[in-house]
Specification:
Blueprint (H helix, E strand, L loop, with lengths): L11 E7 L9 E2 L3 E9 L2 E6 L2 E6 L3 E9 L4 H12 L3 E11 L5 E16 L7 E8 L4 E5 L3 H7 L13 H4 L12 H11 L1
Antiparallel strand pairs: 1-2, 1-7, 3-6, 4-5, 6-9, 7-8, 8-9, 8-10
Length: about 200
Amino acid sequence: MATYPVLEGKNAVLFERLLENAKKEPAQLIPYQTSLSYDPKRDTDSTTTKMGNVPTASNIETDLEVEFLNAISKAADDIYDSLYFNKKIEVWKVHLDRVRSDGKVYAEYMRGIVSEDSNDNDADDHSTRDATFTIDGVAKRGWTDLPADIKEEIDYVFRDLAKIADGGEESGEAFKDDDRGIGANEKEEATNSAN
């Protein structure tokens, strides 16, 4: 019996960038996302004829909605700019748990504008935002790299004990599956037997 890996909702995240900044900066992760809703749809109709129904279909319409904790970030400000000034925005819906053998992750790329951005500010809770994007045309599906700084933004990576200025960020080595059960003596024996 075939098994099909299930994609987890927590691993679908949204990145954004104002289209005008495409040559100046990388895409930004919208921080502290709590929900992401993606709704492409096509209205259909049919005409009844003596030979049966003949269907007709309209163009694809896509609504994309992201809820997040309001934080001081470039991404949060870009969403305001798209809404207030009618600026085109690029968005990537990335599935972190759909990874190709070369390490690239599955993504859907879209362009559009922010059509709504509601903000709740209750006295006993964090400030939250709920932004809706109206997308032009049809999303483009593909595979993208996740640069190291973006991986760290999503989930911090292993870091060495040294100060960052002394190369601590680059000098550490993350634990690998091959390291299971290995201690100082096992490492030395493996190195000696290889020589």
